[in-house]
Structures are given as C-alpha cells and as structure tokens.
Specification:
Blueprint lengths: L13 E7 L13 E7 L2 H14 L3 E4 L5 E3 L7 E4 L8 E3 L7 E5 L4 H10 L2 E2 L11 H7 L2 E2 L2 E2 L4 E7 L5 E5 L5 E2 L2 E2 L5 E8 L1 E2 L2 H18 L25 H7 L6 E2 L2 E3 L7 E3 L5 H19 L8 E3 L5
Parallel strand pairs: 2-5, 3-5, 4-20
Antiparallel strand pairs: 1-2, 6-7, 7-15, 8-16, 9-10, 11-12, 11-15, 13-14, 17-18, 18-19
The structure holds flavin-adenine dinucleotide.
C-alpha cells in the first residue's frame, strides 16, 4: 500500500514525476528539484488533490511558467502542481454569449492569449506585452507595469479552494494592488477578461510599441525572473520609488556573486550566467538589500518568490 504524498493521487487522473528538475523549468534555469511534480489531467483530479493535500497537511505549490520563481538549490518539498494539460490551457471567446468576454484557463500562455485576442480585434491586455506568464501566474501576481496591470481587464476569477470547491469571484469582490491581489484560495483555475473591440492593426501596433519599450528598458534576452525587488514606498514622500533607481544610485550595477549579477541594463534585474546557482542569486539579493538600506535607509522587499524546503 502506498503511504505519504504518493498515496494522495494513486487513484487520480494525474501525471506524476518524482524528483523532477524544477529549477531548470524556471526562467532563471537554476535551482534544485521538486520531490513531486504533479500534472493533473482534469479539473476533478485537481480538486480532489487539493482537498487531500489540505487534509493531510502536505504543502502544495502551483507552478505557472516559472517567470517569477527562484527554486532553492536543495529543491522543494510537498507537491508542486503544473497546470499544463490541455484542460488547463483552453481559451474561449464569448463563453456566455457576451462577445467581449474571453475566458482563459490558468495554464494558458499570456503572450499567446494576448496575440490571439489582438488578431481578433479585442483590446484590453496590451499592458501584458513582454511579460512572460501563464494566466494564473499573471493574475496571482497582478503582473504589469508602466502601462497597467492584468487586473485592469479582469471580469471574474474562478478558483479552487483548499477544500477543493470551485468558487467564482466577480471583479467587484477582487482587489488588484501593486503585485498582489486579495484572492484567498491556493489555486486559480480560470479568469474571464472584459475586452474592448478595436481595429486589429491599431491594437497590434500598440502591443508592438509596449513590447519595444520593454525590450529597450529591460534585459529580456538574459536569464532572470524580472524585477528582483518591489518598488518600495519612500517613508518621507509616501510614494513608490523605483527600486532599480535606488540600486543604481547605491552603485550596485554589475555587482556579482558567482554566476549571478545585477544587470547593467536594468539595476532591478539580477541575471545569471551558465553555471550559476540559486545561492548565487540569493547572495546578490542579500547584498543589494543590505547596501541599499545603508545607502538611503529604505528596505527593499523581494518581488521574486523563493521556494525552499520547509516553507510554502
Ligand atoms: C524577462 C522577464 C520580464 C518580466 N517583466 C515583468 C513585468 O514587466 N511586470 C511584472 O509584473 N512581472 C514581470 N516579470 C515577472 C513574471 O513575468 C510575472 O510575475 C508573471 O506573472 C509570472 O507568471 P508565471 O506564470 O510564470 O508564474 P510563476 O512564476 O510560475 O509563479 C508566480 C506565483 O504565482 C503563483 N501561481 C502561478 N500559477 C498559479 C495558479 N494557477 N493559481 C495560483 N497561484 C499560481 C505561483 O505559485 C507563484 O506564487 C518578468 C519576468 C521575466 C523573466
């Protein structure tokens, strides 16, 4: 008889990979392995798995596309769930007979969804150009930037609770704030967006402009997880200030630990070279945090999520 986490899914429609090389799946491409990587094939299997994990107290983490994640070199415990089965990648237009709505499952790719909506003459997601993500990861993080965030276009979000129930929150019940939301549940299952009809050529031009801006201001060609730190609130002005500017002003561009360094292109990006480890990245982050605090008295908070054993 199976015991431990494996007994949680032995009768479910899931694909299981023990000792999976999770770090390699992230945009950083560094870090260790997951004790168990589980890919459900159906929503029902996901619901049952969530319920059983909660009852057994087994940590459950959801992996999107790994664009905001750093996996510790010693790996992660519990169960990592990846929603990349076709059932979790579907995108449907007009799901309720309302032409302006698009419903995307959490595992759908953000860039593909944006390009497809744009081709169909539906605007409202251009602010997501150049942001690597799944729909679930983008909504969880309220990803965005200078041109807006994903929350701006959300009509409703459907989640799976820790008890395995499906629950839908209309936009009116949701708060999308800077890189966070008030979504209480562990799993985002799908999101419905409210889009605006427009000329496909003009919409595509706008997406290209935003992408070009990102490409010129961020090291998109290098391995990173985007901005390492959130833009902090200046205690004097009570306004958010650019973390990249504070890191630059502290003279930290180019700061290197092993194979990780502060990008010279954008000081809030910590980029890696082949052979780098997660420990190198953390080493750079700790040094940056300490020196920025010394330099201007402002404490930086990590934007990148760091997954390690014993924490979930
Ligand atoms: C080159 C580069 C540029 C970037 N530029 C930006 C930018 O301009 N703006 C910005 O905001 N971010 C940016 N990022 C960071 C990243 O793209 C975003 O945070 C994105 O939302 C991560 O999505 P993901 O699917 O990869 O999520 P992951 O990194 O896999 O996960 C991030 C978090 O979301 C959770 N999560 C993922 N899927 C689900 C789900 N279905 N249900 C519940 N929780 C879930 C994870 O558990 C984790 O807590 C950039 C990253 C890179 C590599």
């Amino acid at each position: 008889m199976l015991t431990g986490p494996a007994s949680l899914f032995s009768d479910l429609d899931v694909d299981v990979k023990p000792d999976a090389p999770l770090g390699r799946l992230t945009w950083y491409g560094v870090g260790g392995r997951a004790d168990l990587l589980v890919r459900p094939a159906t929503i029902e299997a996901l619901q049952t798995l969530a319920r059983r994990c909660a009852r057994s107290g087994i940590p459950l983490r959801i992996f999107g596309s790994g664009a905001n994640l750093l996996i510790a070199d010693e790996g992660t415990d519990g169960i990592v769930i990846r929603l990349d089965h076709p059932a979790f990648r579907e995108v449907r237009y007009n799901p309720t007979g309302t032409e302006r709505l698009l419903k995307a499952m959490a595992g759908a790719d953000m860039a593909r969804t944006l390009m497809d909506a744009t081709r169909r003459g539906l605007g409202g997601l251009a602010q997501m150009a150049g942001i690597p993500a799944t729909i679930g990861g983008a909504v969880r993080m309220n990803a965005g930037g200078k041109f807006g965030a994903i929350g701006d276009a959300v009509e409703s979000v459907t989640c799976i609770t820790a008890g395995g129930q499906r629950v839908t929150y209309p936009a009116g019940e949701l708060r999308f704030e800077y890189r966070r939301t008030n979504i209480p549940d562990p799993i985002i299952l799908s999101t419905t967006f409210r889009l605006e009809p427009g000329d496909p050529v003009a919409l595509r031009r706008r997406v290209k402009e935003i992408f070009a801006f990102k490409k010129s201001s961020q090291p998109l060609g290098e391995n990173s997880a985007g901005c390492a730190f959130k833009n902090p609130v200046d205690p004097v002005t009570e306004q958010r200030v650019s973390a990249g500017r504070l890191i630059d002003e502290a003279g930290l561009k180019g700061l290197t630990r092993g194979g990780a360094k502060v990008s010279r292109h954008h000081a809030n990006f910590i980029v890696t070279e082949p052979g780098a480890t997660a420990t190198d990245v953390i080493g750079v982050m700790e040094e940056v945090r300490r020196r920025v605090l010394d330099d201007c008295g402002i404490e930086l908070e990590r934007e990148i999520e760091y997954w390690r054993r014993g924490e979930s």
